[in-house]
Amino acid sequence: MAESYREMTRETRSPASSARAVDRGYDDERGIGWVVFAGTMLAIAGVLNTIYGIAAISDSSFYVGDVRFILGDLNTYGWLVLVVGVVQLCAAVGIWAYAQWARWVGVLSAGVNAVVQLVWISAAPWLAVGLFAIDVLVIYGLISYGGRRPLP
After folding, report:
1. Which of 11, 63, 116, 124 has the fewest CB atoms within 10 Å, measured from its CB?
2. What 3 state SS string does 22-70 have?
3. Most confident of the ranges 16-20, 76-80, 139-143
4. Domain ranges across the chain
């Protein structure tokens, strides 16, 4: 009895059946929360960027006065943030519809927005830091868990 047990366990122990090498397959539900979170945060960032872009274009007194920017002025950055915000809103709608193009547009727009927020930091420091952190989380969620999914 003991001999047959040893033979049986030797036969079933192979490198392919070890815990590290077991093919667990792809779970469609894994990470769906991150994708929904990324779409939601992208939509929120898009709305904020759109509103703050319009405020900067209209020379609102909301922003810090007499700020020096690397290139251009507040009006230029307002247009840039407005365009990024509209692209983020479109990407968020596409992410919720499980469109593959929206995943990459979302990653690209979050990356561009992260850079823009670092340049924009002198005009609205806390807003820029907050949106930068959201952009990092959006990029993580979309790259890690935003792969192809079947339609619901």
Report:
1. 11
2. CCCCCCCCCCHHHHHHHHHHHHHHHHHHHHHHHHHHCCCCCCCCCCCCC
3. 139-143
4. 33-145
User: Tokens in use for 47?
Assistant: 């709305």
**What are the phi and psi torsion angles at 50 (to 5°)?**
-65, -45
Kindly report the pTM of this predicted structure: 0.70
The span from the CA of 40 to the CA of 70, in Å, is 31
Token readout for 94 is 């596409």
The phi and psi torsions of 88 (rounded to 5 degrees) equal: -65, -40
8 Å CB contact between 11 and 4: no
For 41-69, how does the pLDDT look when each residue is reduced to its tens digit (9 = 90+)?
Answer: 999 989 988 998 898 888 766 666 666 76
Task: State the DSSP string of 101-120.
Answer: HHHHHHHHHHHHHHHHHHHH
